[in-house]
# Entry
Amino acid sequence: MGKQMTEMLKGTLEGIVLALLAEQPAYGYEITTRLRDHGFTDTAEGTVYALLVRIEQKKLVDVEKVPSEKGPPRKVYTLNAAGRQELEEFWTTWNFLTTHIKRLNTTHTNTPSEEN
# Structure
């Protein structure tokens, strides 16, 4: 993944994870797998776990420890009301940005190129 993609993803990954949790509760590894299934193949597990700590600290999710077949209990993250509100704000911001960026891109691609 290029540096520009990495930087843009850093700014949006929280919203993306909240959107995944809005679909259904999940534990860390499952979230990483679902991200990869959605095309975010270069997302490191460590990045996801650090993000989960942040959204838990921000009280955007409820956490339940569920017994695991192997090893210690898993933390299952469920989007709560504050998380749904945050996700709604994310989509509002995302829609604003994509609309305006598309306009810039359309303007840029439709301008005649300068001749030397």
About this structure: The radius of gyration is 18 Å. Residues 32 and 48 are 7 Å apart (CA to CA). Helices lie at 3-23, 28-37, 45-57, 81-110. The longest strand covers residues 61-66.
